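Exercise 3.2. Students should predict the tertiary structure of the chain below and write it as structure tokens, then compare their answer with the key that follows.

Predict this chain's 3D structure.
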Amino acid sequence: MLGDAWSELFAQGRELRYPKGRVLMYQGEVCDRLLLLTEGLVSIVHRNADGAETWLGHRGPGELLGDMSAISGDVRNADVVAVSPCTVTSIEKSRFLDFVGPHRPLLELLQREQKRRHESDVRLGAGRVPSLTTRVARYVLGLAQNSPTWQVSGWTQQDLAQALGVSRGKLNQTLSALREGGVLEIRRRTITVRNMDALRGLAGNGTA
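Answer key:
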């Protein structure tokens, strides 16, 4: 989503680093800044009125964080939590809006992407608990489809297991099955999608 058109804007930003487990943005707070995630992975978590948490998805390098509330003017609708150590570029909301205002195609692209992400997050968070295979497929798909090489990098299996709320043993079994099925290639800190159609199929359905 982010290309050369954003270089001018984010060159004016400030680089920040967050350790694993840190909350980058809080649900309910007023948007005053946006973050461009350059390294690491974050989890998007919605807190319900009864205090229960609903995992909505993950974001990876190259993704904007906070743009939904910046464009809509609403408060943030979820927490953004670092799954691994993260590096971001922070930009003030006012500077962001001043930039995208004259660039209507960029604004329309953001709005379409915003709608797509929202619909995807709603699907991920709704209904019965998906199987681990489905959850892993959705996780990888959500990040890999933003990469020209269909890769997800910068994580450890322990990070992923913690983010999905499962044991490392169960995660390893699922990843091994996906690797043996020719869906994924798994190396140290890198997952490469080998069969995107199969991955999309696995991400579409399946409950535990």
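Discussion points: Helices lie at 7-10, 67-72, 93-100, 104-125, 132-144, 157-164, 168-180, 196-204. The radius of gyration is 17 Å.
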